[in-house]
Amino acid sequence: MAKAIRFDQPGGPEVMRSETVEVGEPGRGEVRVRHHAVGLNFADTYFRSGLYPAALPAGMGVEAAGVVEAVGPGVIGFQEGDRVTYTGSPLGAYSTERVMSAAPLIKLPDDIGFETAAAMTMRGLTCAYLLRRIAPLAPGDTVLLHAAAGGVGLIFTQWASLLGIDVIGTVSSDEKAAVARAHGCAHTIVYTREDVATRVRELTGGHGVPVVYDSIGATTFHQSLNSLRRRGLLVCFGTASGAVPPIDAMQLAIKGSLFVTRPALADYIADDTERAALAGELFGHVSAGRIKIQINQRYALDDAVQAHRDLEAGRSIGSSVFSL
Known about the structure:
Elements: E1 2-7, E2 16-21, E3 30-40, H1 42-49, E4 58-59, E5 63-71, E6 83-87, E7 97-101, E8 106-107, H2 114-134, E9 142-145, H3 151-162, E10 166-171, H4 174-182, E11 187-190, H5 196-203, E12 209-214, H6 221-226, E13 228-236, H7 249-254, E14 259-261, H8 266-269, H9 272-287, E15 295-299, H10 304-312, E16 319-323
Parallel strand pairs: 9-10, 9-12, 10-11, 12-13, 13-14, 15-16
Antiparallel strand pairs: 1-2, 1-4, 3-5, 3-7, 3-16, 5-6, 6-8
InterPro entries: ADH-like_C (IPR013149), ADH-like_N (IPR013154), ER (IPR020843), GroES-like_sf (IPR011032), NAD(P)-bd_dom_sf (IPR036291), QOR-like (IPR047618), Quin_OxRdtase/zeta-crystal_CS (IPR002364)
EC number: 1.6.5.5
Keywords: NADP, Oxidoreductase
């Protein structure tokens, strides 16, 4: 028997509940994984709230790290005892053990711990495609990143520094600004007291930045557009404050022939070869100590409700995990 966090209807954190579930044996193409740590991501709140559709009742969570305990027929490349991590699988990662498809699994190097893996697989692969696939960036470029002190933000700024890219990061407080700068952020903007677009123009000699990475959505969309230079690109990769407003194509022309994209991690790790390449680069940086994963919040699985409340209230810095 395993413990799992599940929900029957969309809503606030209180709709989640802890259950004891029968796991069973893996079928064709499946494995049974015992989790040692589970990732807590803002995207989890989208499924719980109903922003992202889910067939209910459902489990919660899409990221975890652990050990393969059983392998079903037809599985190639994995065996009992393998250390693995994953993200992007069907909901159900908030559990001590589960049966799942082997397709999303990534073998975990021995020198990366389970908590580190659970804290970085989704966030790190997100940073990998944002920096290595979305737009051509060169050393000396300056970009704007919202939520620079979050789990994605702290990985992104370190990786960008390795590439010679300067990051202007937005944060909500001086405490978070200090954390972002300590992880490689070249400049910080405390958006609670500074106008983001105005400050970006000041920092870039009036030109704006070539790319804005925006995981916030509704409340930052217009500031993001106004921070771009001519023919700049707005990358909307999250909606923490709600969905972006309808896009007026003529405004994109008026503001400088701007581009907007709304990418999803799933489309950058669907191909096994590309997923392996992105994961290999991420794991290499972490193993070598070039990128450090900061875990500042650890929860028991039974504390999922409080974990979501903390996440949505902006009380988190860096990554959060459930320790099992």
